[in-house]
Amino acid sequence: MFEHMLMNRRKFMKGAGVVATSAALAGCGSTTSSDAGGGSSSSGSSGSTTATTAEGYTLVEDGKLTLISNFAFPPFEFADENTGEYKGFDVDVANAIAGKLNLELNILPTVQFDTIVPTIKQGGKADISLAAITITDDRKKEVAFTEPYLDSNQSFVVKADATDKTVAALNVSGKKIAVQSGTTGEAWAQENMASATIVPLDDIVQAMSGVQTGLYDACVADLPVTSYMISQSYSDLMIPDGVYSTSSNPAGGQIPTGEQYGAILKQDNTALIDAVNDAFDDLWDEGTMDSIQTTWFGEVICSKPSE
Phi first, then psi: what are they for 218, rounded to 5°? Predict the structure, then answer.
């Protein structure tokens, strides 16, 4: 069993690599400018070259699959404070996909979550993003999604000793609800808690820490992430029962949004989209996706999702 302790934000990111117990769970072309750089299992590039492969897809840099993500979303993606190495479920999946494509994974420095879709849409800097990105119709207008690779719900987090623990009790003037900017958690809170003040933040660690210190009354974020963080560092927080009860989920305890995560790529890079989907199929068939889930969640929390 994991030792539960209170951590500040820096200490949490240092310790986030501990495996959680289950809690609810890739020539010739034009040169383009890039700020890509280190902080990864593969060093970032100082410039980027758009290359067309023999397979017919384009890459920012020949021989490499270049990944962009927000590395403050454990256990999906985070940075080891001591080494700067990027780790997590999505990092392991991206490495496995790159291996299937016979490419080296090149990880760009962390960016804010709400800049990822515009960066992929524009092209020239990154080939792909895995960042626990929920497949939505609005995002499909900007980028292409792969097949889904994980199912998820949202969750509602409060202090363990909080008096107000339900959406109804907190959806009132004067209450502050923390969310990560640009996420589906933010969208859900804006739609369902319009009477409260919704506070968009750069990352989920800020949101959880703010609830812990009393700066915010609650936060809304992806269930696998909040469950992991509570098990690791925030033992004085909880996902309360009965928060958002429905006829099919009378006990509540999570917000049943039925979301699915997909990797995103530039819409016109269809050959690469097909290649990544083929890689996902192979990874499911050979059990690699199950193995990566077990590494980061303590068990398989999702079989191969259906679209």
Answer: -165, 170
